[in-house]
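Two folds, back to back.
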Amino acid sequence: MHRVEATIFAANEPVGRETLARIVGKSCSIDLLIDNIREELRGRPYDLVAIAGGWKHLTQPAYANAIRAAVGSSETKANLKQSEVLVLMCIAYFQPITRGELSSFFGKEVSRDLIGHLRGAKLIASGPRSPTPGAPYTYVTTKDFLLEFGLDTLRDLPDFEALEDAGLLSKEKLLAGDFPTGLAGGEKEHETDVIEDQLS
């Protein structure tokens, strides 16, 4: 158990099941070991969290202010505009998706620059070629996307249909720039026209 905990503690990236199995053997239950480590960490200022397909030690959110006061902010969050968050959200929910399909969704062309910025932030990557005429590239989210938003897998995204049924999300709301609080990072654009300009 201590070898697993030490490996996860020392790693910069989440440690996957395969790596842990090499340490303790394939016959050992990784899930049971992780549960035991989490039980030992109960009440501590940090926890073992399933994220991006592996496990990582993360401090509890309640201690964020104390850490910032002591060592400053080491935030590496992507600085995204609302328009970029909107496109990223569509890619996350409807991947693999082409730039043309994104443009159809928004009713305006999604610029190559916007896609390039999301690719540069390593939040999206090229997916399989679309079977449509011309075989355009599709876009998919990356492991860095999961890390950025604290997700273990894409199944951890809020259920899109449930959000629609609850009246919290709809295509009309997305196009108007009205989406759930906390999804946008970076600067906030208040005008719909500004959002639309970023898409074209």
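---
second:
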Amino acid sequence: MLFLDVDGPLLPFGPTYQPPYRPAPTASPDANPLLARLDPALGPRLAALPCTLVWATAWQEEANERLGPLLGLPQLPVVEWSELAEQDALDQRAGLHWKTRTLLACAAGRPFAWVDDEMTDADRHWVTAHHPAPALLHRVDPGLGLTEPDFATLDAWLRDAVATDRAGTAASCASADSRAPR
């Protein structure tokens, strides 16, 4: 299972960012301007990874509606975030990302990779202490987005994880609440 963030990994940002590829066409002039930064070639690369892809983004279902078609991806499971709780506020003060606990609950003890641009060593340490299966927390440079070395790392790790656990699915990731705005 690969939990995939959008802003940063798929939509690089920064004041000097210039895409080295032909940007994806946007459907309408009122579309999110960041969509022009989406590399359509990422879709086949993501689809080729040996895992279940799961949107783990504040875009939530909009990732399926707006990015999926531009990437050529099918509808993917979406992690739905709980309302900001007291524990989340304490976690954030301790340096833990607001997604970390929810993603571990979704993984339900199975191996997973998480691609994001905001995770820190605090998240890695917490996952190591609280998750019984292998986990790869892979930070992507938000100014570059996913690159060839990122895909090489993910592919190698996922192939090893798949070899040890073929039962992983994303069915347990949905909840009824929503969370942080984009």
